[in-house]
Design a protein that fits this description.
By secondary structure, the protein is of the alpha/beta class. The protein has a single domain, classed as Metallo-beta-lactamase, Chain A (4-Layer Sandwich). Helix content is about 20%, strand content about 25%. A seven-stranded mixed β-sheet has the order 6-7-8-9-10-11-12, covered by helices on one side. The longest helix is centred in the middle third of the chain and has 10 residues.
Length: about 260
């Protein structure tokens, strides 16, 4: 887990709420922008936020075979600017494959045109329900509802193991997460990483769900372990921690999982 926070991170600049003050006092409670690094002999990322440079430096990442981006909000794509030196030095000029919705590929023609001009990256549009393969990882994109932009979740499989990654969502295509039909790609994963931006006992913003909804959705999908991610400072972490256990886990920066 390279980062476990939302766009505003934790602590938020200028905020002195209890969560932000706790994160200032204890670096273990700080949360950078959301990204997962999956690696064995191959290396792929899920999302690439603005903190990516420092996250990759912290974990010693020097090679990336592919990046799967969920949507084109800046807290999930700005880190793509880090790719130039990794490609030139870490992988001897071999470009990184970047995958995501067609809207991301279109935006890349302008925002990341230098990556294309210098053959540092390729951008490939994915369609929901159409799997692809990258460096031995089998990846299935599926649509979720997040604000008004095309947003994907991903199921990733390798060696008989699986994870689901849902960094940002408000609903499923069929309606609320508690009642909507479940995409098959969400069901029965070993690890289930799920947006937990808010708390049902406080203000809930548009575009995201609460950690309580996230925990219920992981259980509904039959995940072996649900990992709560993409936190804001509005989450009541004391109550969340009382709810965690073998099958429900609080995500944090630098956390490691084995599959």
């Amino acid at each position: 887990m390279l980062g476990s926070g939302g766009a505003y991170r934790l602590p938020q600049l200028g905020c002195h709420c209890p969560n932000c003050e706790a994160a200032r006092a204890d670096p273990r409670q700080r949360r950078g922008t959301m990204s997962l690094w999956l690696h064995d002999e191959a290396s792929i990322l899920l999302d690439a936020g603005p903190d990516l440079y420092h996250q990759l430096l912290r974990e010693g990442v020097e090679r990336i075979d592919g990046i799967f981006v969920t949507h084109q909000h800046r807290d999930h794509i700005v880190g793509l600017e880090c790719l130039e030196t990794i490609v030139r030095h870490g992988q001897q000029g071999r470009p990184v494959q970047v995958f995501g919705p067609a809207s991301l590929v279109e935006r890349a023609q302008v925002e990341f045109d230098y990556l294309l001009r210098h053959s540092l990256a390729t951008f490939t549009a994915l369609e929901p329900g159409v799997p692809c393969e990258c460096a031995g990882y089998w990846v299935m994109p599926f649509a979720v509802v997040h604000h008004a932009i095309t947003t994907y979740g991903y199921r990733v499989e390798r060696g008989g193991r699986s994870l689901v990654y849902l960094s940002d969502m408000k609903e499923l295509p069929g309606g609320p997460p508690a009642t909507a039909p479940l995409p098959q790609a969400m069901v029965g994963a070993d690890l289930f990483f799920i947006d937990s931006s808010f708390d049902a006992n406080g203000w809930v913003g548009p575009g995201h769900i609460t950690w309580q909804e996230a925990a219920a959705l992981g259980a509904r999908c039959g995940a072996k372990r649900t990992v709560l991610i993409h936190f804001s400072h509005r989450v009541g972490f004391a109550a969340l921690r009382r709810a965690t256990g073998e099958h429900l886990v609080e995500g944090y920066d630098g956390q490691r999982f084995s599959l």
